[in-house]
Amino acid sequence: MTGDAHHLLPSAEPVTLIGVDGAALHETLPDDAALLRALQGLVTARRLNEQAYALVRQGRLAVYPSSHGQEACQVAAAQVLADGDWLFPTYRDTAAIVERGVDPVEALTLLKGDWHCGYDPYEHRVAPHTTPLATQLPHAVGVAHAARLKGEPTVVMALCGDGGTSEGDFHEALNFAAVLKAPVVFLVQNNEYAISVPLARQTAAPSLAHKGIGYGVKGERVDGNDVAALLAVLTDAVQRARSGAGPQLVEAHTYRMQAHTNADDATRYRKDDEVAAWVERDPIVRLEKHLRDRGLLTDDVLARMTEAAEKTAAHTRDGINRDVEPDPAELFAYVYAKPTPQLIEQGAQA
């Protein structure tokens, strides 16, 4: 490889700081407060996933793409951002949206079938839930570029899955960001499947992080079930972007432990023993072991975390179960800032 392009290549193996057994593999870890905060986020995210799945079975949510097993990616992505930064999520990133500060009832409104988004994107700087694959990525670059032109220290965290990297929008966004040196961190949650299509049928690249070098974007790989490693890698990426070093592509190696959505039968395309191997790498269990071994986590502390998570679940359950009387006029009120004559005419007939 010529020139100084070597610095764009990701590490040979995903960055890991805490082993599956909870042992520290590196002398430098995120500080204790950050790890405890991350565990609270993980416990809450897991409980939110469980509650949302129950609401689907009760007919209160139309669909729910669970992030069970991927919570470390979700929590870390939200926690490394400053208040003025932006998060651009996908349909599977409800936990990240909630960790960013959005009310979970509002975050699930789209998946219930109500309204257009469910929350004000500007309040917490969280873009709408995006169902089409990778379409939010060029938008994320545009927001980052606009902030840079205005002299704002904004960084954008743009999330997608491994399936999204097969979409044209992903490649266009990387090229766009690299040319403009936009302060964007692209976090790919590689959970091994694009619905039923395994990664090996999606790409022949050495890793998804290697895709950055073709656009002049630095790539990195990280253990997506190790929240400590995620916090370290993503914090570094955000700091680089904020300092003017341009975009970075981070591939988090994780796994979707549950089905693609409640409408999917994952047993048709993967084996139980494959899932079981990843259950042993559960991000919550790993961090709990580490914190207990260091005397930072007691039963009382964990009980308080569980209680806080349960309060979030109860709030979500109560809010989603509340019936909302639809107002047909809303179909016409928010299409254009200035309604067209046709909309006014249609609205009058509603």
From TrEMBL:
Pfam families: E1_dh (PF00676)
Residue span, Dehydrogenase E1 component domain: 45-317
Signal peptide (UniProt feature, chain positions): none
UniProt keyword Disulfide bond, yes or no: no
Cofactor(s) needed for function: thiamine diphosphate
Keywords: Oxidoreductase, Pyruvate, Thiamine pyrophosphate
Family annotation (InterPro entries): Alpha-ketoacid_DH_E1_comp, DH_E1, PdhA/BkdA, THDP-binding
Name of protein: Pyruvate dehydrogenase E1 component, alpha subunit
